[in-house]
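Handout, page 2. Input:
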Amino acid sequence: MSAPSVPSEASASKDPQGRPTVSEREARQVAEDAREQGWRKPSFAKEMFLGRFRLDLIHPHPVPAPDDVRRGEAFLAKVRAFCDEKLDGALIEREARIPDEVIAGLKELGVLGMKIDVKYGGLGLTQVYYNKALSLIGSANPAVGALLSAHQSIGVPQPLKMFGTQEQKDTFLPRLARTDISAFLLTEPDVGSDPARLATSAVPDGDEYVLDGVKLWTTNGVVADLLVVMARVPKADGRKGGITAFVVEADSPGITVEHRNAFMGLRGLENGVTRFHQVRVPAANRIGEEGAGLRIALTTLNTGRLSLPAMCVGAGKWCLKIAREWSGAREQWGRPVARHEAVGEKISFIAATTFALEAVVDLSSQMADEDRNDIRIEAALAKLYGSEMGWRMADELVQIRGGRGFETAESLAARGERAVPAEQMLRDMRINRIFEGSTEIMHLLIAREAVDAHLAVAGDIIDPDKSLADKARAGAQAGRFYARWLPKLVAGTGQLPGSYAEFHPSGHADLSVHLRYVERTSRKLARSTFYAMSRWQGRMETKQGFLGRIVDIGAEIFAMSAACVRAEMLRAGGDHGREAYQLADVFCRQARIRVEELFTRLWSNTDEIDRKVVDGVMSGTYTWLEEGIVDPSGDGPWIADATPGPSGRENVHRRIG
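Output:
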């Protein structure tokens, strides 16, 4: 997890396809430079990873302003009516395309401008109600939710809102609020979560830049009107260069959408491969400074990531509804299957997890709206936890439905049964563990933020490039920090039986016991992290299994905290308080079992021997184990050629009227 001092730009050498060749250290430094440095506002999750349970940062639960609620609820009512009357999810699944009239209807509702300020023609909704709308629309069809999320959460509107000039906002935001669909283009055929090797170039030419390169998995790219494109500006005398963000008109000469990709799920997703050949972009369309592209992308994702778990909340609610209805109607051995413990525990898991996930998303969203706290870790945890738990809930629903869960909705309807698309939900949900940062990348990203305070005081000690004098100064600084910090990890309010008494009102489940557990666990988590850094020092960044478990523990106790705070908010407001306390209680009990298992696996695991097996697999030691099969894969390279140049393919880009 160290941040060594190496040049921030990747080396100038390139491979035969024109991609920059970079060392591991250079790649890490590019990512490190893109991080938002410093913490200007408090962060509940950051404090939690440091062993400080700051309940005061989230309790009492923040609530939206009455006018925001009024406008938000009125809009949700319109969206619900549209989804009921105009959005045919089965048709989208069958034809693998969102009908133009559906998108036109959404535009008419103003859905493209949910987060755009009213002065630019948008609706100016809060993050809370934007997420509720995505959850609602995504439950009708996840591909439509993905289109809207890609447009507003990571597409052109959000980076312009945060980093654009006034001229750019005046020019583009009115279009984006009502008519124009946007897309975000970062990934390349050989560049995913490691942007240091990004090959798409933007060469300055007068008051323009000339773009060349190929972008992969361009969500909305097939139908987009405006693009955010990340491209590398070469260094030059007096020019910083680096990965830079541009707003690009999708119908610019030289842009070709060469292919519309097809996937396991999200069949209506307009996702493609886009080639740029000598595409001229005005310098006025550059967002921010040269070299600021990755920082802009990561900062945009601080809140943009919340849209994905919001749609997982919608999926959880649907899974719960279907599980309840089906498990009451289906009988086995003389009683409904819900009354059999093996099925009942799955239903309990779906109900409790849906409650907790909604608590995580709403809490994080409201904190984003109030802008009092830094929520970069909270949003990342919400994405990680939502995608993993959403997938598990969908999988459990398929299991509850049995053979009918594996059967398509169309087939069920054809033989006279209710068309329940459980298998489609499972396929559609699977991408969430990869979208906007895979689970493995999210583990590393969150872990880096979680140990930021340690690296700030002790990073030079483990940096091999630092001098002995630098290491000595860092050692003295670290000594002072840990002398103050470590004693605070020994004892806390979690050991006092009467702590958090307001979370044990008469006649309700006792949530105070769970908050005391969270406080104790937060300190234990911090002690474990400190011990690991002391043990492994510079090798800590290679211990990805350990870091992933640390993050997963943090995600569980964040969700426990959010669930308890939400339950108390609902009780105080007289809104299903007793039931909310019951759901929070069972969720916390389930989460505590998972946390204890994760703590055990911190130090009792197969990480070392796994690495030895991997060495054997990659060296060919176990090829005999692969015998006796037929590989149905086709021929062709593992990674498509992305050499810059003109396109030889038909342009499949289509404009939606």
